[in-house]
Design a protein that fits this description.
Layout: H1 2-15, H2 18-30, H3 32-58, H4 66-74, H5 76-113, H6 117-134, H7 139-161, H8 182-190, H9 197-203, H10 211-237, H11 250-253, H12 255-287, H13 292-308, H14 314-343, H15 357-378
C-alpha cells in the first residue's frame, strides 16, 4: 500500500506543477465553463495515453526512457526523432519552471532582502541544478510530503479567501473568440506526466503490477486539484486574476498571507523541477549514452540558456510544450502501444483500448495544427 501511495504521489506531484498556476488566468481569458469543457475532454485522453505507457513500461526492460522505448518498438530512425521530442519537451518544461519558480522566489524574498528577478531566478536554477547533480533517492517521499503540504496551504488559501469568494467571479471573461483555443495546450500540460512513468515503474520493485492502478488515480488527482484551484483563485480574484495566479491575491490577502501562498508556489515548482530534471538527465545518460556529468550539464543549462536569451513568457511556453511537444510524445506512445499489441496480444490487459489508438493520434495531430495556427494568429 505504501508503494502505491508513493507511486501516485510521484506522478501526481510531478503533474501538479507550473501548469496549475496558469489555469485561473486562462479561465479568466477563455471562460470558466470553456476550461471545464476542455478538462472533460482531455482528462480521459490523458488517462488512456498514460495507461498505454504504463503497459509498455511493465513489458520492457528497465533503465529505459522514451527514446529507449521507441528504439525497441519503432526502430532507430524514429528513436532519433523521439530524442529530439523529449529533449525539447523537457527543456521547455524546465524553462517554464525556472521562469515561474524564480518569479515566486523573487516575490517571496525581494521585499526583505531586495535583489532582482534575474538574481532569484538564477538562485532557483542553481539550487535545483545541484540537487539534480547529486541525485535524490528519496524523491517519492519528497513528492509525497510536498503534496501533503501543498494541500494544506491550498486549504489555508480557501479558508482565508472564503469571505472574498464570489460565484459571479467565475462568469468573468476578458478574452474574445480568438482565446477559445488558448486553454488546450495549457490544460494538456497541466495533465501530463507520462515521462515519469518508467521512473515510477522501476521504484515499485516487486510490486510493479500496481502501476496499472496507480496511473488513473495519479492523473485524476491533478485534474481535480486543477479544477478546485481554479474555483478558489478565480472565485476570489475574478477580473484581477494574474498570469501567475498568486500575485493577484496580494491586494486581497496582504503580504503576510500571500507569502504562504508564494511558498506553495516555490515548493510545487521546485519538486517537479527536480523530478523532470533527473528524468532529462537520465534520457541523455541511459538512452543516448552520453557521460553522466555531461547529461546533467545539458539537462540543467539548456533551459537556463533559453531563459537568458529572452524566453520568459511562461504561459506561451507551457502552451507550446503541452500542445506540440507532449502531443508528439503521446503520438509516439500510441504508435508503440499499437506495435506492442500486435507483437504480444496475449499481454494486453484491455484489448478493446487498441481501437482508440488512431482516433487519439488524429486528435493530437489536430491539436498540433490548431496550436501552430493559434500562435501565428496571435503574432
Amino acid at each position: 500500500m505504501l508503494k502505491f501511495i508513493y507511486g501516485v504521489s510521484v506522478i501526481s506531484g510531478t503533474i501538479i506543477g507550473i501548469g496549475l498556476f496558469a489555469l485561473p488566468y486562462i479561465a479568466m481569458k477563455a471562460g470558466f465553463f470553456v476550461v471545464l469543457g476542455y478538462f472533460f475532454i482531455l482528462f480521459p485522453v490523458a488517462v488512456i495515453v498514460h495507461y498505454f505507457f504504463a503497459e509498455l513500461a511493465l513489458n520492457t526492460p528497465d533503465f529505459k526512457r522514451l527514446p529507449g522505448f521507441v528504439k525497441i518498438y519503432l526502430g532507430k530512425k524514429t528513436e532519433k526523432f523521439s530524442q529530439i521530442v523529449i529533449i525539447f519537451a523537457l527543456s521547455g518544461t524546465l524553462l517554464a519552471y525556472i521562469i515561474l519558480g524564480g518569479e515566486f522566489l523573487y516575490q517571496l524574498f525581494s521585499p526583505v532582502f531586495s535583489g532582482s528577478s534575474f538574481f532569484y531566478t538564477t538562485l532557483y536554477f542553481l539550487i535545483g541544478s545541484l540537487v539534480i547533480f547529486f541525485g535524490i533517492k528519496a524523491i517519492a517521499k519528497v513528492e509525497f510530503f510536498g503534496l501533503i503540504l501543498f494541500f494544506l496551504i491550498l486549504l489555508f488559501v480557501f479558508i482565508k479567501g472564503f469571505p472574498y469568494w464570489e460565484i459571479e467571479n467565475l462568469l468573468v471573461k476578458t478574452g474574445g473568440a480568438k482565446d477559445f483555443f488558448l486553454p488546450y495546450g495549457v490544460i494538456l500540460f497541466s495533465l501530463w506526466g507520462a515521462v515519469i512513468i518508467p521512473e515510477v515503474e522501476e521504484t515499485l520493485g516487486e510490486e510493479k503490477e500496481k502501476l496499472r492502478k496507480i496511473v488513473p488515480v495519479a492523473v485524476l488527482i491533478p485534474a481535480l486539484v486543477s479544477i478546485i484551484f481554479i474555483l478558489i483563485i478565480f472565485g476570489i480574484t475574478g477580473s484581477f486574476t494574474s498570469e501567475s495566479a498568486l500575485a493577484g491575491l496580494r491586494s486581497i490577502f496582504g503580504n503576510g498571507a500571500v507569502s504562504a501562498t508564494l511558498f506553495l508556489g516555490v515548493l510545487t515548482t521546485f519538486t517537479s523541477f527536480i523530478v523532470l530534471g533527473l528524468t532529462l538527465k537520465k534520457v541523455l545518460w541511459y538512452d543516448m549514452g552520453l557521460p553522466k556529468n555531461l547529461s546533467w550539464a545539458i539537462a540543467c543549462f539548456s533551459p537556463y540558456f533559453l531563459y537568458i536569451i529572452g524566453l520568459k513568457n511562461f504561459i506561451a511556453v507551457i502552451g507550446a510544450v503541452g500542445a506540440i511537444m507532449w502531443a508528439m510524445e503521446a503520438i509516439l506512445i500510441n504508435l508503440m502501444y499499437r506495435k506492442f499489441s500486435i507483437q504480444s496480444p496475449e499481454k494486453i490487459r484491455y484489448p478493446k483500448l487498441k481501437s482508440l489508438v488512431f482516433p487519439i493520434i488524429v486528435f493530437f495531430l489536430l491539436g498540433i495544427f490548431f496550436e501552430i495556427y493559434y500562435f501565428f494568429n496571435q503574432a
